[in-house]
Amino acid sequence: MADVDVRLVDVTKRFGDQVAVDGITLDVTDGEFFTLLGPSGCGKTTTLRMIGGFEQPSSGTIELQGRDVTNLPPYERDVNTVFQSYALFPHLSIFENVAFGLRRKHVKGDEVKQRVGEALELVQLVGYEARKPGQLSGGQAQRVALARALVNRPAVLLLDEPLGALDLKLRKQMGIELKRIQREVGITFVYVTHDQEEAMTMSDRIAVMNKGRYEQLAGPETLYERPATRFVAGFVGASNLLEGRVGSDGDMWTVTLPSGAVVRAPKSLGDIGSAGAIGVRPEKLALLEPGQESRGNRLDGVVVDTSYLGVITQYVVEGDGGLRLLVSEQNVDRTTRSDTWRPGERVALTWKPDHGFVVGDSAKA
What's this model's pTM, rounded to 2 decimal places? Predict the structure, then answer.
């Protein structure tokens, strides 16, 4: 069993009457890329700041490598933090920015040179030692901040939305680089982001947070294919949730929609409860001519919107009773816009029951 680098036990943080973090318990294992994902105000950054010692929990305990650090200041914890702002010293060279933490620890001479060189090589900035932060691009500055944090060889590296200031293309490139670096150094990363694509790309496990708690903690594939709550289903990718009267038919859950149509999902997917829903991702749906035969779940409707997005074409289909569903089709054999379904055309939506998922009555504590 993997060693635990970070352990939170019933950690709560209050700011006056407001509960920012509400009784979180979780373990982050040695060498793991662990992400706290959620919208603004969900408590993810406050949780990270408590791990780093920048905020004190109102109750609960925080352990780093088996040591209780709940009441210790940041400089007594074997962690370093990379912030969105980078916080580089503009008057110092890149070499001295990276060496700053080593000099504070009284590391001397050749060891400083060696360790700074190794850190800059890791982030692919060898040759930039003499430059100042103002001479760097945003992506390069982010690499320097990462090198400065890693040069001290912390047990855990905390990253608070470090890619937030970069443009979309550079964020994607740096996300791949961060995962590469994490694998090379083998240090535990605890990462905070509101960007679900970032989280899915880099993480070994993700805690999806909402209102001070996490609603689901799992790997990226499980979160996407088998979301446990309505919130997770909507926050991690796009979902169609089909709600109505819940029933049972052998090894299948059934949901009878207001239109009278019935959709099914295997009971092996989880407990739907008495007021849950059956969900299906947009890319799992297929569009057919109304008269075409289909197997599995089927709903009839009318195309109300078509958007050509290059890799996919996205449709909004309105079913009987006003239910709207999002459908994504890959543009594999399509060569012209005339191959797409047009608004106003009647279609049939179909998908296999085991390609869906179920969410229960309410969010998990």
Answer: 0.90
Q: Give the separation between CA 110 and CA 203, rounded to whole angstroms.
A: 35
| Mean per-residue pLDDT, 184-206 | 94
Give the pairing type, strands 240-243 and 277-280: antiparallel
User: Does 365 score more than 70 pLDDT?
Assistant: no
Domains of the chain: 4-231 (3.40.50.300), 238-359 (2.40.50.100)
CA-to-CA separations, 213 to 10, 16, 84, 307, 347, in angstroms, rounded: 11, 18, 23, 36, 41
The span from the CA of 55 to the CA of 74, in Å, is 9
Question: First-to-last CA distance in the chain?
Answer: 26
Instruction: Give mean pLDDT, residues 282-289.
Output: 94
| DSSP helix/strand/coil, 349 | strand
Residue with tokens 């979309």: 168
Block residue for tokens 């979780």: 26
Q: Are 299 and 261 in contact (CB under 8 A)?
A: yes
In angstroms, the CA 361 to CA 336 distance is 44
Per-residue pLDDT tens for 240-273?
A: 999 999 999 999 999 999 999 999 999 999 999 8
Average pLDDT over residues 307-321: 90
Amino acid letter for position 313: T
Residue 104 tokens read as: 């504070």
37, 208 Cβ separation under 8 angstroms: yes
Structure confidence at residue 174 as a pLDDT band (50, 70, 90):
confident
In the numeric block, which tokens belong to residue 233?
């289903």
Tokens (6 digits) for 118: 């190794």
Which single residue is written with the structure tokens 């400065």?
148
